[in-house]
């Protein structure tokens, strides 16, 4: 796919996700896709800083994963993306194939905290976009697996402030990281440690 095709595909995928979410009350069946401006910001950030070893927690239908993989593909990098829902795992697989980016993604289905415990590093970017309550435990498991030059990113800081408090507290205990919250989409926490 060309860049224009990937962008058009992503617009279509986002529209499908929105339509799905409007027609279901069941939270587990919602796609809860990243806001397009947040996704595009991540894409620009990761491309411009040449991230090659990206972990995403919360794949859903692969909308944000496609943005991340598109950025990683320019560095022949890889994305590991985790989701516990087998149906969403299959959707993400199909969508990444359609975008021509499947070869850049290692999809893992299961409990994110357990999967993280078995991952090896070094990771130069981690994007938290799933169960926010597990994020603090995941941060401590990830610390020894992070590259010296690393981004820790998390969505929904403004939309779900109570749920993300534990994650933000865990970040505050990492003094070597510079931290800020960007009022983009639903609120993006950006933490960066330079080598």
UniProtKB/TrEMBL annotation:
<dbReference type="GO" id="GO:0008171">
    <property type="term" value="F:O-methyltransferase activity"/>
</dbReference>
<keyword id="KW-0808">Transferase</keyword>
<protein>
    <submittedName>
        <fullName>O-methyltransferase family 3</fullName>
    </submittedName>
</protein>
<dbReference type="InterPro" id="IPR029063">
    <property type="entry name" value="SAM-dependent_MTases_sf"/>
</dbReference>
<keyword id="KW-0949">S-adenosyl-L-methionine</keyword>
<dbReference type="InterPro" id="IPR002935">
    <property type="entry name" value="SAM_O-MeTrfase"/>
</dbReference>
<dbReference type="GO" id="GO:0032259">
    <property type="term" value="P:methylation"/>
</dbReference>
<keyword id="KW-0489">Methyltransferase</keyword>
<dbReference type="Pfam" id="PF13578">
    <property type="entry name" value="Methyltransf_24"/>
</dbReference>
């Amino acid at each position: 796919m060309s860049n224009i095709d990937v962008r058009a595909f992503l617009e279509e995928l986002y529209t499908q996700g929105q339509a799905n979410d409007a027609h279901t009350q069941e939270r587990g069946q919602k796609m809860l896709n990243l806001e397009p401006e947040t996704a595009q910001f991540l894409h620009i950030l990761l491309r411009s800083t040449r991230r090659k070893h990206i972990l995403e927690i919360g794949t859903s239908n692969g909308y944000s994963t496609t943005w991340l993989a598109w950025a990683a593909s320019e560095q022949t990098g890889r994305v590991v993306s985790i989701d516990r829902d087998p149906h969403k795992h299959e959707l993400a697989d199909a969508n990444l194939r359609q975008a021509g980016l499947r070869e850049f993604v290692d999809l893992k289905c299961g409990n994110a905290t357990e999967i993280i415990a078995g991952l090896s590093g070094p990771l130069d970017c981690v994007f938290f976009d799933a169960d926010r309550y597990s994020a603090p435990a995941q941060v401590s498991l990830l610390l020894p697996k992070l590259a010296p030059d690393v981004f820790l990113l998390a969505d929904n800081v403004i939309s779900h402030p109570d749920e993300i408090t534990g994650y933000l507290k865990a970040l505050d205990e990492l003094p070597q990281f510079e931290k800020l919250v960007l009022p983009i989409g639903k609120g993006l926490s950006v933490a960066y440690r330079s080598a």
